[in-house]
Amino acid sequence: MRLMDFTVLALKNLFSKPATKNYPAEPAVYPERSRGHIEIDIDDCIMCGMCQRKCPSSAITVDRKTQTWTIDRMGCVQCENCVSGCPKKCLHIKPGYTEPSQTFTVDSYSKPVEEKAETNNNDNSDTQALTSGKITNDMTKCILCGLCARNCPAECITVDRETKTWTVNRDDCAQCGACIDACKKFKSLSYAEDDGETGMVVFSKDGSAPAPKSAPKKAEPKKEEVKPADDAVIGKLSKEKPDSNLTYGKIANDIENCILCGLCARACPKDIITVDRKDTKTWTINRDECLQCGECIEACKKFHCLGYAVDDAEYGLVTYKKEA
Q1: Is 57 helix (H, G, I), strand (E, B) or coil?
Q2: N or C: which end of the chain has fewer CB atoms below 10 A?
Q3: Where do you find CATH 3.30.70.3270 in the chain?
Q4: Hey, what CATH topology would domain 34-110 get?
């Protein structure tokens, strides 16, 4: 009797389709709600790092300098925290899992880096222009006009037209590039590799540094009433300071220690920080657009005036103003 039951089952299976599939020769069909692996639309990514902060297994690494996004496939737990936390919605779950391997699978995606405009044909420099580092001066181009010194937020540049020297205090320099932006006529200032040089560094027209002498007393600027510019970005005034014990929350500014150098605004991936050091002496942030990614805090490496504060769901434009 058992033999007859087996014969019936064998004949039935002989003329029916197999219950299993010939995988991977045939692609697998996944259920609608199954979790697969993380994919990224790298062209839409702004390298804010929110996915890295959200990942509970630390499987994601974001490098803004090299514009690369990396994921450790064996470390990813497919929890979708990065997907839900991505402000640009460039991350998504794709059906299918990482193929088994004897080595750890790490996938890196590189964002295309925009080619910088070609330098002046008269510039014989073979190296690519740096975007950060210590400030250096090409004295063959410098006319000692003093615009760099006027625009320096840390007041660490001294121009002496009598001795034909240009001096920078490396200890106080924030490397913000405000002096480079001011030298738009002759382009004598630029970045150089930061080799840890400290103290006062003198550049001379004749190529040699003069004997040290006491710095001349700076004339006290005339106190003039500052009127906000017509296009100035001003929001609700705030004096809330950051809490050093917090590692996450809304961004706050210790405006008394801020020199308004603008490094935070340049580092912000959303471009929602506005610094006005000339007219209104204000620092403004758009809380509606802020990702709280902390890139501005990392950029404020010289004076440490930015930090986190308790996130009380404050919205809109918030402005910190330096007292005269």
Answers
A1: coil
A2: N
A3: 34-110, 236-321
A4: Alpha-Beta Plaits (3.30.70)
**CATH code 3.30.70.20 for 134-204:** yes
Which CATH number among 3.30.200.20, 3.40.50.300, 3.30.70.3270, 3.40.50.10740 corresponds to the domain 236-321?
A: 3.30.70.3270
Q: Is pTM beyond 0.85 here? A: no
Q: What does residue 241 show for φ and ψ, rounded to 5 degrees?
A: -100, 155
3-state helix, strand, coil in the chain (%, to 5): 15, 20, 65
For every one of its 324 residues, what pLDDT tens digit does the chain have, with 9 covering 90 and above? 566 778 888 888 888 887 777 777 777 788 877 888 899 999 988 888 889 888 999 999 998 888 899 999 989 998 999 998 888 889 999 888 777 777 888 999 998 765 544 444 444 444 456 777 899 999 999 988 888 998 888 889 999 988 999 999 988 888 888 899 888 878 899 999 888 888 999 999 876 544 444 444 444 444 444 444 444 567 788 888 999 888 888 999 999 889 888 889 988 888 899 998 888 889 999 998 888 888 898 888 777 899 999 988 888 899 999 886
